[in-house]
Amino acid sequence: MSNTPILRHRTVSVQVGNITVGGDAPVVVQSMTNTDTADAIRTAAQCFELARAGSELVRITVNSLEAAQAVPDIRARLDKMGCDVPLIGDFHFNGHKLLTAVPECAQALAKYRINPGNVGRGKKRDEQFARMIEFAVRYDKPVRIGVNWGSLDQELLAKMLDDNSKLAKPLELEEVMHEALLESALSSAAKAEEYGLPHDHIILSCKLSDVQGLVRAYRDMSKRCDYPLHLGLTEAGMGSKGIVYSTAALSILLQEGIGDTIRISLTPEPHAKREKEVIVGQEILQALGLRSFTPQVVACPGCGRTSSDYFQRLAEQIQGWLREQMPVWKDQYPGVESMSVAVMGCVVNGPGESKHANIGISLPGSGETPVAPVYEDGQKTVTLKGDSIAQEFQALVETYVQKTYG
């Protein structure tokens, strides 16, 4: 962890189930399911897997009567599995009707997400927004007012464009849209408070899919309010693009102390597990020194000295194994999440990196003596050789964890 802590933008704290967002609480990692919420069995199973991977809040789509009716069942199934992860209901267009029809859904959820651009049109907009806030007040639930530039309140934007056209020096369209995003979030929060929702029950988000636009929006938002801020680059994309863009945007803001909870909106590969977005979110926070979630493996990139892929396979094996252990280790071995493990591929940087890690191994490169020294807390403890180096090193890591953090 860094010796120079990042100073957080001061926000109020909001309680979401058993998780605190904002205030002095650590930045919270959350995720969202992609199952049909009406399928309570599959949705509960995915919520469980996301929570097990480290998602501290899980959002589910509530878009139909069947989905709303399934929410209490999903909550009950998770409770039976010993999983207390808070559930967030994601509402668009018909949330006021669903909460009215299924009050059990309103009660089972830990938080509601409302998009001001998708609440309604004209007079109905305020009525339907007020109806949803009424349920939040009744059941003492916090609300995230989540503005998205892909579904910006068109009536508000039209009014602001009209007002802008009357100025002596009209602003560029991009400037008007920027102000419309902020105004939509802040004015909706003010209305929610007028309708009785406490100040400390509101979280705001202002999502874009453009990195620089997102950074600017949240910088300005943080200056204009003290609500906790939910960070996320919307529609980030697939694979390395989604990861890189999300990391670029969120790292700038988090380094500036802006942001209280994050979600990485990755498009998963077909049939891929949903947990990847959780892991990326954790790794961003861990890389910045804001939190620790799982021991990190330091490994070299490989070069002409490392013609064998042995060290790569061992690094991947150890990293996967460490992550698999964390659901149990985090309770048994406090502090293990900050441990570093080095798996190096040759003598150039191998011994040095291994000494700097809590425990490390320097594997032989091309033409080097076929032995692998192991270092623990800077001291060489043993030299491994033969065909079972991987198994022996993993056993040494497990022993180190037990004696150091047990």
TrEMBL record:
Residues 11-281 form the IspG TIM-barrel domain. Residues 296-398 form the IspG C-terminal domain. Its cofactor is [4Fe-4S] cluster. [4Fe-4S] cluster binds at C300, C303, C346, E353. Keywords: 4Fe-4S, Iron, Iron-sulfur, Isoprene biosynthesis, Metal-binding, Oxidoreductase. One of its GO terms (biological process) is terpenoid biosynthetic process. It catalyses: (2E)-4-hydroxy-3-methylbut-2-enyl diphosphate + oxidized [flavodoxin] + H2O + 2 H(+) = 2-C-methyl-D-erythritol 2,4-cyclic diphosphate + reduced [flavodoxin]. The keyword Protein transport does not apply. HAMAP family: IspG (MF_00159). PANTHER family: 4-HYDROXY-3-METHYLBUT-2-EN-1-YL DIPHOSPHATE SYNTHASE (PTHR30454), 4-HYDROXY-3-METHYLBUT-2-EN-1-YL DIPHOSPHATE SYNTHASE (FERREDOXIN), CHLOROPLASTIC (PTHR30454:SF0). Belongs to the IspG family. This is 4-hydroxy-3-methylbut-2-en-1-yl diphosphate synthase (flavodoxin). The lineage of its organism: Bacteria, Pseudomonadati, Pseudomonadota, Gammaproteobacteria, Thiotrichales. The gene is ispG.
